[in-house]
Design a protein that fits this description.
With 245 residues, the protein is mainly α. The protein is built from 11 helices and no strands. Helix 1 packs across helix 4, helix 1 runs antiparallel to helix 7 and helix 5 packs antiparallel against helix 6. The longest helix is centred in the middle third of the chain and has 38 residues. The mean pLDDT is 81.
């Protein structure tokens, strides 16, 4: 082992919380923001959000590391010294449940989290928009509008509730891969997550540590998909009907 006598479980326990907090929070924010904007864009097809979407898709086409380097250059290194360049917290602090450490950890995570959100939000928005456009034309949505129901109720109760089902499947996969983290992003920001740990293990040819990391990632993907399947069954009455049959 490259970090002997440290145990594999100890190393994973030290890095997984960092990745879960950063990448998990950023993924959830990107999902809800992108899904919400996608609902509005699909319902009001041809509006201003449709015109903004190509610009947002440009950010999605940019690799994590490239956008991260640009943001570091602009907001941390030379132009504006607003955020720290890297690390998970300020030097000299001892990790613990105190305001100084928590505040420093949040401050150091803003820039990498923003990188993840801005490069993934457009994908959720585009997918939700496309499904919403199809769902809005369904008979049950048209019938709800013909009954004179409030547009907000039609959007969220009839259209968005059914359109979001494919979105949940993709969200399950995204949550599963949260554990693996954004490896390149963690390297660029020197963030102490599992992605950086995996890089160090590969560099040092630490096979036991690599095996443990891959096992945790695989287990996380399976558990996330299982949870999403339960959510889909709870949300979609058609899934419950198929199960009963």
């Amino acid at each position: 082992m490259s970090q002997y006598p440290a145990k594999v479980s100890t190393l994973l326990g030290e890095t997984i919380p960092w990745t879960l907090t950063l990448v998990g929070t950023a993924t959830v924010i990107a999902f809800f923001a992108g899904t919400g904007l996608g609902i509005v864009a699909g319902w009001r097809h041809g509006g201003w959000l449709d015109r903004v979407l190509p610009g947002l898709m440009f950010f999605q086409a940019i690799p994590y590391f490239f956008l991260a380097l640009i943001l570091i250059e602009l907001l941390a290194a030379r132009t504006w010294h607003i955020f720290p360049i890297g690390q998970g917290y300020a030097g000299g602090l001892i990790p613990g449940w105190n305001s100084a450490f928590i505040g420093s950890a949040i401050y150091h995570s803003i820039l990498p989290a923003f990188t993840i959100v801005i490069t993934t939000m457009a994908g959720w928005m585009l997918q939700m928009r496309n499904v919403m456009i199809t769902t809005v034309g369904e008979d049950y949505v048209v019938a709800a509008q013909a009954k004179g129901l409030h547009s907000r109720r039609v959007v969220f109760t009839y259209a968005a509730r059914n359109a979001i089902l494919p979105q949940l499947q993709g969200f399950g996969l995204a949550l599963g891969f949260v554990v693996s983290g954004a490896i390149i992003m963690e390297i660029v920001f020197s963030y102490p997550g599992i992605g950086l740990l995996l890089l160090n293990a590969v560099t040092a040819k630490d096979y036991p540590l690599m095996q443990a990391i891959f096992l945790v990632i695989t287990f996380a993907v399976l558990v996330a998909n299982l949870i999403v399947d339960f959510i889909v069954v709870a949300v979609d009455p058609r899934a419950r009907t198929r199960e009963a049959a």
